[in-house]
Amino acid sequence: MPTPELISPRSPRVAAAKRLARRNFRGKERRFIAEGPQAVREAVEHRSGGEATLTELFTTVEAAERYADIVAAARDAGARVHYADDEVLAEVSQTVTPQGLVGVCRFLDSPFEDILGARPKLVAVLAHVRDPGNAGTVLRCADAAGADAVVLTDASVDLYNPKSVRASVGSLFHLPVAVGVPVEQAVRGLRDAGVRILAADGAGEDDLDDELDAGTMGGPTAWIFGNEAWGLPEETRALADAVVRVPIHGRAESLNLATAAAVCLYASARAQRTRTPR
């Protein structure tokens, strides 16, 4: 049975990992925290620029036994594995009830130009999205719908916020994500790459059902999703080829951001697969 190596929360390694809770330190170190077996497993398998994404793993002895395959894979991938007690995990973790595995990962965002060069067919653009949980959930929806990429504009939340990472449930490691792209640049680049731009807005002039019935959604598409509370500003709506609303057939006032994003992305994914069987 291995003995915990980092018995003090004041260890320099623990202090360095703990600082990654703050955005300025994440940006300076270009590192972020991924917690729990699902996220850590995905991080172990991910590589960026030829390098392993996971650089360090903090684990309790109990978690190391329960997730022995993940810990072994992390060690094989070159990550430094630290056995720690519960007090240390509580210091490093960003959750109330840590699951015993906390990974330190390299930043993995992709240059926007690389995304354009891959000729994407379905893209989610997060413009003015400020809630980290919503950002991570939309990323998860995009992954599930088979999107080719996600773009976070410079007015949106930090991709590596611990809440965003947790809400993505590992999808952060599955598809290219560009960050800090001005919305005008994102729209211009995608349009030049042959992608139709649709803005999702509850007050949109066009109805999603009508778009589907008209057969206009089978081509490459980027959806712009806005702020949870006040939607998209007029200047962003004006950039789109169409502003589309998800129809409300019942008595609900509206849909939350992640639900609307899932409906829109799946509608495009279905239309594209119907047009070009895979």
Helix share bin: 40-55%
What is the rounded Rg? 20 Å
- Spatial order of strands in the largest sheet: 9-8-7-12-10-13-11
Mean pLDDT: 91
> Looking at the structure, what is the overall shape?
elongated
Q: Helices and strands, in N-to-C order? A: HHEHEEEHHEHEHEHEHEHEEHEHEH
Global structural class: alpha/beta
Q: Tally the helices.
A: 13
In short:
With 278 residues, the chain is α/β, with parallel strands linked by helices.
Q: What key attributes describe this structure?
A:
four-stranded mixed β-sheet; 20% strand; 278 residues; alpha/beta
Give an overview in words.
- It is a single chain.
- The mean pLDDT is 91.
- The strands form three sheets. The chain has a seven-stranded parallel sheet. It has a four-stranded mixed sheet with strand order 1-6-4-5.
- The chain has 13 helices and 13 strands.
- Helix 8 (132-144) runs parallel beside helix 9 and helix 8 (132-144) runs parallel beside helix 13 (257-275).
- With 278 residues, it is α/β, with parallel strands linked by helices.
- It is elongated and about 60 Å long.
Topology:
Blueprint: H1 12-19, H2 23-29, E1 31-35, H3 36-45, E2 47-48, E3 51-52, E4 54-59, H4 61-66, H5 68-76, E5 80-83, H6 86-92, E6 101-106, H7 112-117, E7 122-126, H8 132-144, E8 149-153, H9 162-168, E9 177-181, H10 183-192, E10 196-200, E11 206-207, H11 208-214, E12 221-225, H12 234-237, E13 242-245, H13 257-275
Parallel strand pairs: 4-5, 7-8, 7-12, 8-9, 10-12, 10-13, 11-13
Antiparallel strand pairs: 1-6, 2-3, 4-6
Helix pairs in contact: 8-9, 8-13
